[in-house]
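G., the chain you wanted modeled:
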Amino acid sequence: MKKLGLYSAAFILSMLIAACSGNDDPLPSKNEGDSSSKPSAVLSGQQEKTTVKGKLTLLATNNLTNLGLPHGSYSGITMIGENKYAIVDDHALYGGIFTLDFKLNDKGEISEKKLNRVQLDGTSFSKGENYGGDENWYDPEGIIYHKSTDSYFVCQERYQEIFEYDKNGKHTGRKINVPEEFNYGVIQEAFGFESLAYNANTGLFWTTTEKSLLKDKTEANNQHKLRLQSFGEDLNPGKQVFYNTDTFNKNAYLHGVSDILALDDGRLIVIEREVEVYSESLAEVGVNFISPLKYNTKTKLYLTDPTNVKDGETVEKNLLTEFKTEVDAISSPSLADYEGICLGPKLNGKQTVLLLADTQNGMGGSMGSITITMQEYLKVFILE
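Predicted structure as tokens:
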């Protein structure tokens, strides 16, 4: 994925000093909550099965920075046990795996007053800031926990590989056999494997690229035609189906699929997100930091069913929820690019879904007495 940190220093500064309201505004849609055409789903990882009608309702947004989580570029999350999770940092070397322990109360709020991030032995950081120039930086993005082998699989966007790591975060030597059509040379540069999903009930892994492969780009180039690729427990490729994103603003800085969640009945939840930034230069801004800037993130979560189409066909999708964040005032920033998704615990008998934000290692800036730093966030949804 192209990184927000590639903006010029002046542009980042003007964007962040303008700050944001932090409100996650639901986007109205005639499809939201419409379950008339959606079959029921059964979710994994729980003793009691859950029927999914097709709706996600926001329960809570947790500020992880306020709970002591160090800034990072957290691009993936997976549940590995009761109140225990693994996250991946795409600025770290090798697998980039860390663990977090936390418990959610009935309101979806994290109970702990302070989070403890544990770096696994196989993870390290490049000396200095030149992680991109280190051959051991694989740009780790999506992560899943594979219970039967007590191991992790992490997709690496830099080399378009999916490696297995043991419980200590060290490469086992195994990897998923990715078809050649996903090789780095045939993707849009830096927009390869951003997502990874797995479900023990179906025994299937799923991944896709953030943007269309070069050969699948549309003439208008305002929509992504993606290939959802499955793999079996033998790590060999299986069914491949097409998935079309919504149309997007071609001037948007970021757009595409950031992660996938696999459900017990074979269906998938797909995150589509778009980031738009409009701003004048600092010279034009002068001392008026607020009015010249517009920044928003749009995030949509879709339910799709690859089980009811044949290999090579295109899947339909149904909107579960959508929200946006806009920058329009000086406040504590809650700008967020949500890149990780996983199942959480059941609360009051209802299944939760967790979304994790990537803040580009706490991107921020300051001017005079004003300092702005992006915060780490975890959203908790109820899946019905």
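The two ends are 31 Å apart (CA to CA).

Shout if anything looks off.
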